[in-house]
């Protein structure tokens, strides 16, 4: 299975927000740290906010933060939400399928089972599992102290 770029960036955004929990972070900070364009990030951030993973705040002192505790964000849920519109293979896309084997193919069932197993294994992993006590990730994604002083007001 191959993750889309959107899912990969979604996880980077969530990990960045997790490392800098209790701080409003900006798109430009994430862009620099995660090596991705701000334009692409804007789409991903908007989708993550729509899905309820991020809280965004507009304005001069705006930014974003996680909308719920890291322990409540399942990697499987993020993957399902961000990959939902991308069929795993052609035969899973009724509108685009041109495969003549669709009515007799057993591979389709095998792929469906494997895909669900992939998501099920991700369901047991939370954002906290990826972020907490991960000093190497912290060293890469932690905001400088002067920026991190913008604490989130609950």
Q: If you had to describe this structure to a student in words, what would you say it looks like?
A:
It is a single chain. The chain has a domain at 5-85 and 126-148: Winged helix-like DNA-binding domain superfamily/Winged helix DNA-binding domain (Arc Repressor Mutant, subunit A), CATH 1.10.10.10. A hairpin with a 5-residue loop joins strand 1 and strand 2. Helix 1 (5-19) packs across helix 3 (38-50), helix 1 packs antiparallel against helix 4 (75-83) and helix 2 (27-34) packs across helix 3. It is 51% helix and 5% strand. It is mainly alpha-helical and 154 residues long. The radius of gyration is 18 Å and the shape is elongated.
Can you summarize this structure?
The protein has helices spanning 5-19, 27-34, 38-50, 75-83, 107-123, 127-131, 135-141, 145-148, and strands spanning 54-57, 63-66. It is mainly alpha-helical and 154 residues long. Strands 1-2 form a two-stranded antiparallel sheet.
User: How much helical structure, as a percent, in the residues?
Assistant: 40-55%
Largest sheet: 2 strands, antiparallel
DSSP, total strands = 2
- Specify the CATH class of one domain: Mainly Alpha
Order of helices and strands: HHHEEHHHHH
The average pLDDT score comes to: 86
What would you call the shape?
A: elongated
Helix vs. strand class: mainly alpha
Specify Rg, calculated over alpha carbons.
18 Å
N-C termini distance: 39 Å
Widest sheet: strand ordering: 1-2
Low-confidence segments, given as residue ranges, are none
How much strand content do the residues show?
5-15%
Examine the coordinates and then state which fold CATH places here, giving the name of the CATH topology of one domain: Arc Repressor Mutant, subunit A
| Count of individual helical segments | 8
What is the CATH architecture term of one domain?
Answer: Orthogonal Bundle
CATH superfamily of one domain: Winged helix-like DNA-binding domain superfamily/Winged helix DNA-binding domain
């Amino acid at each position: 299975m191959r993750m889309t770029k959107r899912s990969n960036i979604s996880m980077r955004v969530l990990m960045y927000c997790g490392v800098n929990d209790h701080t409003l972070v900006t798109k430009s900070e994430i862009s620099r740290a995660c090596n991705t364009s701000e334009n692409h990030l804007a789409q991903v951030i908007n989708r993550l906010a729509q899905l309820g993973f991020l809280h965004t705040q507009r304005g001069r002192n705006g930014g974003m933060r996680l909308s719920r505790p890291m322990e409540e964000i399942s990697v499987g849920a993020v993957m399902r939400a961000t990959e939902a519109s991308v069929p795993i293979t052609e035969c899973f896309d009724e509108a685009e399928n041109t495969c003549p084997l669709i009515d007799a193919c057993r591979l389709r069932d095998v792929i469906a089972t494997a895909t669900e197993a992939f998501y099920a294994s991700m369901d047991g992993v939370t954002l906290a599992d990826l972020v907490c006590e991960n000093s190497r990730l912290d060293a890469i994604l932690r905001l400088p102290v002067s920026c991190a002083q913008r604490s989130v007001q609950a």
